[in-house]
Amino acid sequence: MAQPVTTLDVKATEALHRLSAARATQQPCAPVRALLPAGDLDAAYAVQSAWIAGQQAAGARIVGRKIGLTNPVVQRQLGVDQPDFGVLLDTMECRTDVPIEIARTLQPKIEAEIAFVLARDLTSAVIGRDDVAAATGYVVAALEIVDSRIAEWDIDIVDTVADNASSGLFVLGNRHVGIAELDLPACRMSLLRAGEVVSTGSGADCLGDPLVAVAWLATTARDRGRPLRAGEIVLSGALGPMVPVTSGDSFHARISGVGEVTASFTGGVS
After folding, report:
1. Which of the chain's termini has less CB crowding within 10 Å, N or C?
2. Pairing of strands 250-255, 93-94
3. Antiparallel, parallel or unpaired: β 93-94 and 169-172
4. Could you give the CA distance from residue 237 to residue 35 in angstroms, rounded to a whole number?
């Protein structure tokens, strides 16, 4: 589905161009928050939507959404106090059995999540956790490689929203699990790098319950004119702290009851 047409003012257009140039040149840029009204999420989401529309025009396809900043530890890591969301494109999905070229990113960090794959649209006037559960086809373990086009991750909520919620790449595991089989808040996560545990957490660390996080997203996306649809992937948010990624790293995430997923990185310094 195409993004809604977005008309940007001069400053928002400058923010879009700054972020796009950072991607094109592989050089992180200065924050864009000074170009947009302080705390103006509408302006930031407009920049995000304009970038996604440009990617679609170039042939990319929307495959889902991601929720960011659901974990209080991650919020403290970035100095942000509320969740946000971004759009997932088919060009962002990576396979577990193929090393990821780290040069595809600028400043990558990795986090383990529970991904939802929807079997039904989420468009009703009131969307709660039970509605999300009923609409979910299955869940799967996921790794999100978050990335920021802003130099040294010097971001606030406006910066990260405009930058597509600091989206980078993502990897899905191979095991599909029905939602009825799980107590999602109780699911425990361990993220290992080269066999060493580097991040831990649980479903309860994702807004108390990943179903609540997805309900927040479904409501917010509906209100912003592009509701969640059947077939979409939703990355529901980090279960533990983000971990920096460097070339040669290999990660393995285990989420109890859900499954496992791996990612490795190769190539030159990002």
Report:
1. N
2. unpaired
3. parallel
4. 28
